[in-house]
């Protein structure tokens, strides 16, 4: 499988009717993820035993999927090794995985991923954009901030927001505005 690289690969993961930004950890023998208990993604993986990594370069989609559900038409069905799986219709590439819970704690599951099929749908070059990368980082921090209200996370979000304003384009600025709306609606007071 050639789409993943060493380290943590940020993707939008899909399970049945669900999409969420996730990191696939590639260190050592096989890729894995950490899924927090109580999330739709964790529940679906435990129930169904599969997940699809979608490679998407849309900062707004990263923010939306972190906080909201996508409409049904955002997903496409794919038959992979005799199982029906769902991927994002707008994915530039995707990898379908068998997903097996390797160990669990009271907070999370460590899920071992076995690649089953990958496909490049459209090949596009994406230069490094610090604004895009900062939206991904700010979104990760925001998902935790809205649960905890931790001021340190708020400071990190502010740092990344500054980088988005400095380095991002129109789509990154739109994503930042959307992220700030989600934070205002959901953060503890």
From TrEMBL:
Domain DUF447 positions: 9-120, 129-180
Entry-linked SUPFAM superfamilies: FMN-binding split barrel (SSF50475)
Region forming the signal peptide: none
Name under which the protein is recorded: DUF447 family protein
Lineage: Archaea, Methanobacteriati, Methanobacteriota, Stenosarchaea group, Methanomicrobia
């Amino acid at each position: 499988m050639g789409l993943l690289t060493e380290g943590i690969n940020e993707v939008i993961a899909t399970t049945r009717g669900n999409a969420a930004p996730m990191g696939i950890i590639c260190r050592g023998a096989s890729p894995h993820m950490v899924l927090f208990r109580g999330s739709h993604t964790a529940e679906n993986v435990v129930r169904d035993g599969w997940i699809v990594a979608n490679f998407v370069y849309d900062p707004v989609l990263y923010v939306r999927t972190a906080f909201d559900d996508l409409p049904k038409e955002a997903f496409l069905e794919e038959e992979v090794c005799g199982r029906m799986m769902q991927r994002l219709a707008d994915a530039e590439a995707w990898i379908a995985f068998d997903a097996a819970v390797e160990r669990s704690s009271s907070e999370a599951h460590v899920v071992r991923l076995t690649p089953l099929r990958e496909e490049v749908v459209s090949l596009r070059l994406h230069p490094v954009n610090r604004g895009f990368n900062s939206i991904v980082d700010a979104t990760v921090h925001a998902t935790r901030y809205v649960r905890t209200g931790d001021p340190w996370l708020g400071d990190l979000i502010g740092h990344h927001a500054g980088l988005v304003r400095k380095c991002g384009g129109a789509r990154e600025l739109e994503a930042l505005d959307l992220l700030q709306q989600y934070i205002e609606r959901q953060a503890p007071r």
